[in-house]
Amino acid sequence: MSKLLVVEDESSTQELIVDALKSAHYVVDAVSSAEEARAYIQSVQYDVLVLDWQLPDGSGVEICSWLRSEGNNVPVILLTARAKIGDKVDGLDSGADDYLTKPFDQRELLARVAALLRRPAQTYVKVVSARGISLDFVNHIAHRDEADLNLNRKEFALLELFMRNPSRVFSPDELAGRVWSTESDASVETIRQTILRLRQKIEVDPQKPLIRTIRGVGYRFEV
Q1: Higher pLDDT residue, 207 or 219?
Q2: Does 117 lie in the same domain as 17?
Q3: Based on the domain organization, do 118 and 138 belong to the same domain?
Q4: Pairing outcome for strands 76-80 and 48-52
Q5: Which domain-ending residue is among 123, 143, 165?
Q6: Alpha helices, DSSP H only, in the chain?
């Protein structure tokens, strides 16, 4: 299942885009600032970014340029009210893959997202490995020593976040925002139970935990 990030600061527009993408059965995260976008992009492997040009703390063009300078080839669709050819050229020159002028029909957005997702997978294949575990973000597969870990979507998303940020402590609120960002049932107990199930699937030696609880603070992935 493809994972998308929507970066749009206008709440009603963001809601319309998210609803349209979810209706097409995509997994969707949504943020409203450049700062949040950078944090999410550094923590999660997305298949497509839907990126507004004008943001309260920066621009979609700046984010796109930063992505490409970091070697991140995730496909990007820029959204903007600017219709001049020069603006379109600037957007594409920054590394954007497509450009959609507001207002736009939701069907056109879905068609353009689908077109980007049809690109050869090797354009954005990425695997992260640590402590004997490997995560294949394109095929959504997790292995430990060649054995399939059979993770569900939330477990995979949690492990991905931890492995992309080794030794960083995440509070329950941060985990809720990153992994349950569009859901209402991300209670502390829900997070605790999900981490417990994840541990049961990935831990080998209880004396050498992969996910450690930092009492009163949160959780971190041990390297």
Answers
A1: 219
A2: yes
A3: no
A4: parallel
A5: 123
A6: 11-23, 34-43, 60-69, 85-93, 106-117, 153-164, 172-179, 188-202
DSSP 24: T
pLDDT per residue as tens digits for the range 147-188: 899 898 889 888 988 887 888 898 998 888 777 755 556 788
User: How many domains is the chain partitioned into structurally?
Assistant: 2
Torsion-angle region of 205 (φ positive above 0: left; ψ -120 to 50: alpha; else: beta): beta
pLDDT tens column, 122-145: 444 457 788 889 888 666 789 988
Distance between alpha carbon 139 and the CA centroid of its chain, in Å? 15
Please give the residue that has the higher pLDDT: either 205 or 7.
7
Given a contact cutoff of 8 angstroms between Cβ atoms, the answer to whether 179 and 161 are in contact is yes
Average pLDDT over the chain, rounded to an integer: 84
Domain carrying residue 17:
3-123
Q: What is the CATH number for 174?
A: 1.10.10.10
Q: Are residues 51 and 18 in the same domain?
A: yes
Per-position DSSP letters for 112-143, written without gaps between them? HHHHHHTS-GGGS--EEEETTEEEETTTTEEE
> Mean pLDDT throughout 37-44?
89
pLDDT score at 37: 93
**Final residue belonging to a domain, choices 100, 123, 146:** 123
Are residues 50 and 68 part of one domain? Answer: yes
pLDDT of residue 35: 92
Query: How many CB atoms sit inside 10 A of residue 139's CB?
Result: 10
